């Protein structure tokens, strides 16, 4: 196996078998909102987006997930007040709102999994799905 | 007796074929003795046809040529190996259907603004020696670029036709009002000659951006649908070395739209290969689908 394929497998495994490989029942939408820069406790939110949101999206493909980046405020006061919030809407119950300020991504994920009553997806390897074994057209 | 007769006949037959059995050496060769030489010179004889002893320059040139030949031989061998690989359908561990590939890519691009989340199709091919790039053009069913087009017309039928053919905004006075209030922005604009008087008010807004329709630029005319077709129209592609890379879709497209775009592109590519001038055509080694931040997976296309 070439190293290129090994590298891609690692990338696919990270998406499909990450810590956030959970199915969230009855979730209709999920949105994150935080500051574009890490300061004032907004790093955990950004890490959550980069590390865990891809897995969540992969296992909940129908759910629209959005990330809103707040431009860096001009003053210190405004930067202190900028929100860092995760908000998940459900069809059958009240939305889950998590304050992500000054918290690490793993903590945020743990709280989200508990609050949203998610079910972990147990997979041995990354799924490749079904594909038709068609023959490539030959060009001679 | 019979045996001996057979043997002698065979021997005579052999003697008749000098390549196999030359027989005894001719007597003349044995009797010619070289002229008496006292000192054998290491220098080549004057005017003699003996080969000159190779100097540094000649040896260098010979080594260079041998090196070049070896490289060419290696290249040919590699091409032959890859061509053999390309003739069979290879299923790698990361080969998957387009739906599954799109699911991975959507996950990898989650939260990115629309417009940066391009899905790219890569075709790796095996080129013959001294290969010229393949060029072609394609009209994708749904254009992947995020280009908003405004059409100014006072005819409602034309406006509806424009919207159906890919215009983002279409209309008359009310659209001009929106532009005046700077509610909408766009990257391209067309107008009919009858709608031009309406646009005088927004000339100061559109003019500096280069969006003001005028006849000299070829953005004013009665055939609005034709304009739209031509503008969103054909996309050119070409191979760079052994790779074709084209943006075919965005992650916000549906599976069906992605499939149709990929099919259109592959058809255009194959046509370009068939119409290529060179006698030796390239073969497809593998087809990959990737995105701006996503992994690259093999697909069968």
Automatic annotation (TrEMBL), chain A:
Coiled-coil region: none
Gene3D superfamilies referenced in this protein's UniProt entry, alphabetically = Glutaredoxin
InterPro entries annotated for this entry? Ribosomal_mL43/mS25/NADH_DH (IPR007741), Ribosomal_mS25/mL61 (IPR040049), Thioredoxin-like_sf (IPR036249)
**Does the keyword Ribosomal protein belong to this entry?**
yes
Provide an example Pfam family for this protein: L51_S25_CI-B8
**This protein's UniProt keywords:** Mitochondrion, Ribonucleoprotein, Ribosomal protein
The question of whether Ion transport is a record keyword is answered with no
Enumerate the spans annotated as Ribosomal protein/NADH dehydrogenase domain.
37-119
Protein name as annotated: Ribosomal protein/NADH dehydrogenase domain-containing protein
Q: Which organism does this sequence originate in?
A: Myxozyma melibiosi
UniProtKB/TrEMBL annotation, chain B:
Which one Pfam family would you cite for this protein? Ribosomal_L1
Would the keyword Ribosomal protein turn up in this protein's UniProt record?
yes
Q: Which residues cross the membrane?
A: none
Q: One GO cellular component term, please give it.
A: ribosome
Superkingdom:
Eukaryota
Keywords, in A-Z order: Ribonucleoprotein, Ribosomal protein
Supply the InterPro entries for this chain.
Ribosomal_uL1-like, Ribosomal_uL1/biogenesis, Ribosomal_uL1_3-a/b-sand
**Known SUPFAM superfamilies for this protein?**
Ribosomal protein L1
The record's similarity note reads: Belongs to the universal ribosomal protein uL1 family.
Q: What is this protein called?
A: Mitochondrial ribosomal protein of the large subunit
């Amino acid at each position: 196996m070439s190293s290129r394929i090994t590298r891609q497998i690692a990338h696919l495994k990270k998406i499909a078998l990450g810590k956030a490989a959970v199915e969230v029942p009855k979730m209709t939408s999920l949105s994150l909102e935080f500051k574009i820069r890490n300061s004032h406790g907004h790093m955990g939110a950004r890490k959550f987006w980069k590390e865990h949101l891809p897995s969540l999206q992969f296992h909940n493909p129908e759910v629209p997930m959005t990330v809103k980046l707040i431009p860096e405020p001009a003053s210190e006061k405004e930067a202190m007040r900028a929100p860092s919030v995760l908000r998940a809407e459900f069809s059958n119950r009240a939305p889950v709102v998590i304050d992500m300020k000054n918290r690490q991504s793993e903590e945020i994920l743990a709280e989200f999994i508990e609050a949203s009553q998610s079910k972990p997806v147990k997979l041995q390897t990354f799924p490749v799905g079904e594909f038709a074994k068609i023959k490539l057209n030959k060009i001679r | 007796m019979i045996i001996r007769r057979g043997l002698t006949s065979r021997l005579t037959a052999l003697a008749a074929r000098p390549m196999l059995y030359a027989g005894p050496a001719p007597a003349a060769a044995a009797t010619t003795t070289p002229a008496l030489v006292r000192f054998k010179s290491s220098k080549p004889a004057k005017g003699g046809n003996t080969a000159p002893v190779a100097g540094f320059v000649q040896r260098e040139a010979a080594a260079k040529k041998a090196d070049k030949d070896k490289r060419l031989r290696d290249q040919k061998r590699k091409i032959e190996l890859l061509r053999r690989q390309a003739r069979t359908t290879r299923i790698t561990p990361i080969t998957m259907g387009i739906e599954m590939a799109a699911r991975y890519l959507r996950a990898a691009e989650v939260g990115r603004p629309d417009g940066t989340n391009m899905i790219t199709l890569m075709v790796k091919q095996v080129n013959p020696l001294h290969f010229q790039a393949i060029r072609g053009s394609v009209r994708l069913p749904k254009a992947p670029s995020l280009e908003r087009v405004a059409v100014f017309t006072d005819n409602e039928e034309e406006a509806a036709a424009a919207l159906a053919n890919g215009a983002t905004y279409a209309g008359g006075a009310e659209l001009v009002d929106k532009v005046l209030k700077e509610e909408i922005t766009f990257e391209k604009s067309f107008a009919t000659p009858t709608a031009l008087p309406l646009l005088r008010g927004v000339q100061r807004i559109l003019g500096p951006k280069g969006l003001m329709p005028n006849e000299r630029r070829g953005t004013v005319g009665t055939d609005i649908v034709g304009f739209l077709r031509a503008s969103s129209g054909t996309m050119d592609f070409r191979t760079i070395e052994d790779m074709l890379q084209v943006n075919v879709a965005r992650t916000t497209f549906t599976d069906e739209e992605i499939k149709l775009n990929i099919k259109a592109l592959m058809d255009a590519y194959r046509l370009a290969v068939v119409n290529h001038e060179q006698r030796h055509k390239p073969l497809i080694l593998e087809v990959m689908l990737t995105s701006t931040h996503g992994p690259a997976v093999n697909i069968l296309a």
